[in-house]
């Protein structure tokens, strides 16, 4: 489905759904300041300048025609969507089915857009980008984005960059385990490299649980951690219940519009 979106970035694990096209309303995102007297939820974005930035950015060459291609169930695609929402950028979202359910038309669309044959893909006025981390980095580097609360200080903070890298490593190991379990159910998931992948997930989660750089503000590391925890739980890939601080972080930030409106669909 191709629609105009203001809700906030893929693995081969995607969402079930069609591949039809339609058009909606191009509109700026809902904005509110946390704790505002109008009763908006404290989880709402707190960047009061986002509306002005939204108008200014849309006038820039590379931001006029932005289309995201991807699955609603992919944590990587969701990460890009969250970033887009937090930055206040209007875009078109062209959804694809899960990898196992892709039609020939969908395969061709993705393969033409990305030589690695996977989502997310971001088509912009400047060209096409693939890989969620590259896409988000491009978004954060656009003129007018660096002063957004979501982006502020992230690219200069090595500890927060490492937190994002750790979340990516957890997801990569999780996606590997999910695909191997799904396609090769007789595989011993606790020996050899598969055992190493489980250890890597636990090691990464333990590091994120302890690091003080995660949580005080909502930026790329927090967004990807929330997406990763939700995906690991939804796909029953790894038990994350022991990581109480990470689960509190996900619960606290989970009601932000960027996350609340990009949850994995029930039928995915």
Q: How would you describe what is shown here?
A:
This protein is an alpha+beta fold. It folds into 2 domains: 146 residues, Glutaredoxin; 105 residues, Glutathione S-transferase Yfyf (Class Pi), Chain A, domain 2 (Up-down Bundle), CATH 1.20.1050.10. The protein has 9 helices and 5 strands, in the order βαβαβαββαααααα. Strands 1-3-2-4-5 form a 5-stranded mixed β-sheet, with helices on one face. α5 packs antiparallel against α6. The chain is globular and about 50 Å long. The two termini are 15 Å apart. The N terminus is likely disordered. This is Glutathione S-transferase family protein. One of its GO terms (molecular function) is transferase activity. Keywords: Transferase.
Please, what is the average pLDDT? 82
Number of beta-strand segments: 5
Count of alpha and pi helical runs: 9
The topology string of helices and strands comes to: EHEHEHEEHHHHHH
Number of domains: 2
- Based on the structure given, which CATH architecture of the largest domain is correct? 3-Layer(aba) Sandwich
CATH topology of the largest domain: Glutaredoxin
Q: Give the CATH superfamily of the largest domain.
A: Glutaredoxin
What structural class is derived from the secondary structure elements?
alpha+beta
Cα distance spanning the termini: 15 Å
Q: What value does the Rg take, in angstroms? A: 18 Å
Please mark out the parts with pLDDT under 50 across 5 or more consecutive residues, or reply none: 2-46, 54-59
CATH class division of the largest domain: Alpha Beta
Q: What strand line-up does the widest sheet have? A: 1-3-2-4-5
Strand content: 5-15%
Helix fraction by DSSP (H/I, runs of at least 4): 40-55%
> How many strands, which pairing sense, and closed or not: the largest β-sheet?
5 strands, mixed
Shape: globular
Counting copies of identical and different chains, the oligomeric state is: single chain
């Amino acid at each position: 489905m191709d629609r105009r979106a203001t809700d906030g970035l893929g693995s081969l694990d995607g969402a079930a759904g069609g591949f039809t096209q339609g058009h909606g309303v191009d509109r700026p995102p809902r904005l509110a300041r946390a704790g505002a007297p109008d009763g908006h939820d404290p989880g709402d974005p707190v960047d009061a300048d986002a509306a002005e930035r939204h108008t200014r950015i849309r006038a820039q060459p590379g931001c006029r025609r932005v289309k995201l291609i991807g699955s609603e169930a992919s944590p990587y695609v969701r990460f890009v969507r969250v970033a887009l929402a937090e930055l206040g950028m209007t875009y078109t979202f062209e959804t694809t089915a899960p990898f196992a359910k892709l039609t020939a038309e969908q395969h061709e669309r993705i393969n033409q857009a990305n030589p690695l044959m996977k989502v997310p893909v971001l088509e912009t006025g400047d060209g096409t980008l693939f890989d969620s981390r590259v896409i988000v980095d491009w978004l954060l580097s656009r003129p007018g984005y660096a002063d957004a609360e979501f982006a502020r200080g992230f690219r200069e903070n090595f500890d927060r960059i490492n937190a994002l890298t750790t979340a990516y490593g957890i997801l990569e190991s999780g996606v590997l385990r999910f695909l191997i379990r799904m396609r090769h159910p007789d595989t011993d998931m606790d020996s050899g490299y598969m055992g190493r992948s489980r250890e890597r997930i636990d090691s990464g989660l333990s590091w994120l649980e302890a690091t003080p750089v995660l949580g005080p503000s909502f930026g790329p590391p927090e967004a990807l951690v929330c997406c990763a925890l939700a995906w690991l739980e939804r796909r029953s890939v790894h038990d994350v219940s022991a990581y109480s601080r990470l689960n509190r972080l996900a619960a606290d930030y989970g009601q932000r519009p960027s996350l609340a409106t990009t949850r994995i669909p029930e039928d995915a």
